[in-house]
Amino acid sequence: MIYQAYVHTAGRRLDPAERELVYQTIRASVEPLELPGRGTRLPATLAEMTEYYADVARNKLADNEFLQFARRSLTTLPFPTLLLPAIIRVLAEPLWRATLPVATRPVLICSVGAAHPKMRELLGSDWKTRHRLEFALYTTVATLAWQHLPRRLTLTPLAHNRFRYEKIRARYKSLQLNSFAASA
Fold first, then answer.
1. Cα angle 56, 57, 61; round to 5
2. In this structure, what are the phi and psi dihedrals at residue 24, rounded to the nearest 5 degrees?
3. Average pLDDT, the chain
């Protein structure tokens, strides 16, 4: 999912070496979460991961109740009631129900657009030219937002803190103030 999201919103076509680098970066970031054992780790290369994914889609992917539940629940998110007074819940719920299909549309289109064709088939998605155009629009908007919005809005707080730290470190290093740079 992370790999597909990055590839579709990078803002340009990535060559095979860049795609491999993206995959290896993702692998390194999730490695601490992997369980011990050979069968529980992500494949070593992008080619192996692509082949594994295609094999699973061809031979093991099947319709099931959880898949259909996930699809249904995306477009029927419950109204958030935590800490809302009853009168606000009563007044806001109709607005929630009216805006939900519009608000979830980009997520639905992007999820289906990045999915394997077999997954699209199982989800009952009738993927047409208008859906491809809509997918291109959403990925373009996401790319432009990533490139032009302030990092405070595009990064999580922890990632933004690291981004600021790296900027300061680079500034000090450019002035040859190595004592402020992280040790090698």
1. 85
2. -65, -35
3. 88
For 44-101, the pLDDT digits (tens) are 999 999 999 999 988 998 989 988 888 788 778 888 888 889 899 889 999 999 999 8
> By the 8 A CB rule, do 33 and 45 touch?
no
Determine contact, residues 14/7, Cβ cutoff 8 Å: yes
- Give the number of C-alpha atoms closer than 13 A to the C-alpha of residue 131, restricted to the C-beta side: 15
Give the span between the Cα atoms of 17 and 71, in whole angstroms: 34
Determine the Cα–Cα distance for residues 147 and 62; give it in Å rounded to an integer. 38
Q: Is the entire prediction scored with pTM above 0.90?
A: no
Which pLDDT score, from 0 to 100, does residue 119 have? 87
